[in-house]
Amino acid sequence: MPEFKIKHITKYTYESPVRESVNHIILYPIEDQFQSVIKHTLKISGNPKVDVFTDYYGNKIGFFAYSERHRELEIYSELTVATIAKELPSETMFSEMQWMELEKLRYQVPYIDYLKWEAFNELDELKKITEQFLQSDLTPYRVAMDYCQYVYGHFKYIQGVTTVQTQIDEIWQIKSGVCQDFAHILCQMLRMAKIPAKYVSGYICPNKNGIRGEGATHAWVEAYIPDYGWLGLDPTNNCIANETYVRLALGRSFTDCSPVKGVYKGPSNHKLTVQVIIGYDNGTSDTQEPFAEENDLIAVSVIPTQGNSYRRNLELMQQIQQQQQQQ
């Protein structure tokens, strides 16, 4: 049972003092039979009170407000997580029976959101590619693996060509991006084949094996396989996401899983740096140098607001929700 020590440091630096910073964080690892949190420490500039709740997708969410004027905001998360390897699907059911089982999930509430795909200009082209893998007598597990390999082989891993706001149409056109883009394309293919698919965010901890995304935040996919459950697939590396992957959150897309998002009152120019340090039970560690990263932090104009601080914070969070709906 591997054990990982992870430090995730997020730092915002503003060009001049800001105020009324209201933030929404997903830095609490998922806890289930395959992953357990041994220790978790969270430190935030100004020591604000963090209210925690569970969202619709089962993610643990933190919410805090930092009202004092400040030029920096640092969120420091340090945790120790243990994971357990999950056995691979045995494929004891006939292929036809498995596809019939998937057909029954179309109107079941736990799966509906994970079966909706996005419409975009080149949808017909993707449909043809997706259907090519369905013409043989392959099981959903084999089809999911083939889709994963397709994304890995046909998309280039290039940092900086996309952002968290990049739409699937552009990703498909340039056939390039980073882990979140690979995950979005794979989710789209699986859902079009009527295989429920979750977008997953977290960390990959392979102990310096040269794998894409190590020592940083990462994104991959979970596909639902009949008579098995959710299977982790990493299209960025064309592998199964198992015990070296630490899950933070899951949802329909990046929007549901962003580690940090928020709004503040002040100038729009700010700098974000993120650093992830992963330690292993053998004493070694991977350190990712601080790097600038796209984010969901929104600047709003300074407008006098009537009412108490709770009301002001609520209005700011409503702006976050409106921004999500527009994406």
Automatic annotation (TrEMBL):
Domain annotation Transglutaminase-like: ranges: 171-237
A matching Pfam family: Bact_transglu_N
Name of the molecule in the record: Transglutaminase family protein
InterPro entries assigned to the protein according to its UniProt record, in alphabetical order: Bac_transglu_N, Papain-like_cys_pep_sf, Transglutaminase-like
Gene3D superfamilies referenced in this protein's UniProt entry, alphabetically: 3.10.620.30
Source taxon at top rank: Bacteria
